[in-house]
Every structure is written in C-alpha cells, then in structure tokens.
Write a structure and sequence with these properties.
Elements: H1 2-32, E1 34-37, H2 38-49, H3 62-79, E2 85-89, H4 94-111, E3 116-119, E4 129-133, E5 138-146, E6 157-160, H5 164-169, E7 175-188, E8 191-204, E9 209-212, E10 216-218, H6 220-228, E11 233-238
Helix pairs in contact: 3-4
Length: about 240
C-alpha cells in the first residue's frame, strides 16, 4: 500500500518536472527567434559564416521599381494568367508543387516581359533566380507559391540560410524581389489542377523585417507588417478569391 503511494508520488513529481522542462524549452525556442531588419540579419549571417561584411541588400530606386512593376503587370495581363490552369502530377509534396508550378509558369511569364529575363544562379540557396535587364542590372528574385492567402498567418516562410549564392552571383547595389504566386488546387485523377489567381511582388528593402532562428525567414504576418509600416512596397496582379 505504502509502496504504491510512494510510486504514485514519484510519478507525479516526474510528470511535473517534465512538463516544466517542456515549458522552459518552449520559452527558450521563442527567445532564439530574432526579428530584425533584413540588412542586419544578412550582416549577422555573414559574421556567422566568417565572411567580410558587404552590403547585400540596397534601397530600391522608385523609377526602377515602378518600371519593373509595370512590366510584370503587362506580362500578367497579356498572358491572361488570372484563372489560368497548370496541370501537375498529384504525387508532389507542397514544396515540390511550388517549385514545379514556378518552373511551368516562369517561361510563360518571361515571354510577356519586356527587356527582362530570368537566369540561373551558381551554387545552391537564395535567391531562386537572377532577374536580368537589358541594361545589365541583376535583381535577386525569390519564388514562392501559396494556396492560402491569410495575411495574419505567422507560419515561417524560409528565405535563406547562407549568403554564398548572393555573394557569388551579385554585386552591390543588390535589390531583392520576393514573388508569391497564389493559386488554388483541385485533384483530377492522377493530376492536380493549379488555378492561378494572383502574383504579388514584394520589393524588399534593407528595413524589411524578417525573423531568424537558424535561417532567415518571413511570414505573411511579417510581410503585412512591413508594408503597413512602409518598410517596403508590394504590387499585386490578379485577384485573390474571397
């Protein structure tokens, strides 16, 4: 009888200790997530890598940004991409689907761009492509694809964990575009049908707020906050479903 009471007591103590340890671990994880301007995060990442700090993100020129936005707007409209459907294999993961969707969409979009083209980058990592103008300007172009459009969503969207690709493919001043292709998904037999709704371009600035635990990341919530606080500008083409 007494032995059972002692064992039950010990089990209760162990359970309480484990629960407290779990809470403490959770708080530590929260503390490890830093939210800082993109330029500071890139500088921290360069320090961690043992690299000399160079300016890896620069402010946008208003005219240059407006010209790119107009160029993409014309390409979206001329391509008739609102409601455009792209068929993919149904056995893709969400991440693979986004990559495959962009691989199908990118050349169609590029065909409607004037004096701009996408080029591959050396090495792995961030950004996905170089957007290159006829004048020789290179823009860091990151591609994302989402099937949900909740601006309050705080889930992480990973941007980069290394500066190697940036440092080896671009030279300051470096301007960044984060492009999100919004679409809905419907399964048909062995395929999924991706219906395009909207393309959003975030013209990222040094003061754009990002998070970092191990890698640099953002979220719909952080992006919305940066726009609201005028840290950077966003343009959208097409319309999101209500």
């Amino acid at each position: 009888m007494w032995l059972e009471i002692v064992i039950c007591g010990l089990c209760s103590v162990i359970f309480i200790l484990l629960f407290a340890l779990l809470l403490y671990s959770s708080e530590l994880k929260k503390e490890r997530v830093k939210v800082l301007p993109f330029v500071e995060m890139l500088n921290d990442l360069q320090k961690d890598e043992g690299n000399e700090i160079i300016q890896l993100v620069s402010n946008w020129n208003d005219t240059e940004r407006s010209n790119i936005a107009e160029n993409f707007s014309n390409a979206w409209e001329s391509g008739g991409f609102s409601g455009f459907q792209i068929r993919l294999s149904s056995d893709l993961t969400n991440q693979s689907r986004g990559t495959k969707l962009w691989n199908e969409f990118r050349p169609l979009l590029e065909a409607g761009l004037n004096n701009l083209e996408f080029q591959k980058c050396k090495y792995q990592g961030y950004p996905d492509h170089r957007l290159v103008s006829d004048s020789g300007r290179n823009y860091a172009f990151e591609e994302k694809a989402h099937s949900k459009w909740d601006e309050t969503d705080g889930n992480r969207i990973v941007i980069c964990s290394s500066t190697r690709r940036l440092r080896n493919n671009f030279h300051p001043p470096i301007n960044h575009i984060w492009a999100t292709l919004y679409h809905s998904v419907e399964k048909e037999d062995e395929e999924i049908v991706c219906t395009l709704h909207s393309l959003q371009l975030h013209f990222v600035e040094p003061e754009t707020m990002v998070a970092r635990r191990l890698e640099i990341s953002t979220s719909n919530k952080l992006l919305s906050s940066s726009i609201e606080n005028e840290n950077h500008k966003k343009v959208s083409f097409g319309n999101l479903p209500e």
